[in-house]
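Bench notes, afternoon.
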Amino acid sequence: MDEREALLTAIRATPEEETPRLVFADWLQEHGEDARAEFIRVQASLARTTPADPDWAGLRCREWELLIAHRAEWVLERADAANALSNAWGWGLERLEHSQEIPQDHGFRKALNLWAFQRGFPDTLNLWNVWNSWSAETEQCVAALAECPHLATVASLNLGGNGIWAGLGNLVASPHISNLSALDLGCNRIGDQGAEVLASSLHLTNLTSLNLWENRITDAGVAVLATSPNFANLTALSLGGNQIGDAAAAVLAESMYLGNLTSLSMSSTKVTNAGVKKLQQALPKCKIKW
């Protein structure tokens, strides 16, 4: 393992730690990659500040200047993920490996825009509505994603609107998702069976945000979710648009694992004032949308 890869391995091993990222930034600067080093430092600083901070606006402007100039080459670090998903969009990022120039066609730009950067690295993967509806190809692509080792460096994964219920088991069985802090499965029709798959996964314990909007989940599915220790770290949970009512509100209120919730969406459901009141009593620090 060369020095660069060793530094990246340290970042993957402790994705929440800032120090390994800054050490890598120093190494990059020492080896002539000044822009990449500056970008890591800028985003690390942004993660510690708010818009009220006097330095925030300047940092944000510099962040975008660097992204406009270098986004494509830096996203290439996730080329293996692009390869795994190449069937989703046709021409993918893997083309950079064989080209001296960055392609400008629509397919490449679409692939590029799937990634967002946090603290210097493209760790947010947005695959909303890539496949649109279930097909055998969809299941194959989800399986390929689950096998991709670089998924371990993704902190936030959006798979909403893809109809992936048939491939959900493969995804949540992957040890590569263990570092996920945010998972968006909205509009996937996973149903109560999908809720059971999520609740039984061994690799979702670091989630702080889970979006299950409009998934045909019933009160029974919510009961399974509420009794799973997988979700003890959740601070945000969206269950809106599902076939749930006050029974679901009751099991959420009684859950011994959901006490850290600060945001709960129950909009477009059959939950009544009585159900919301029970939730407010059990979760006084939680903002409830219904």
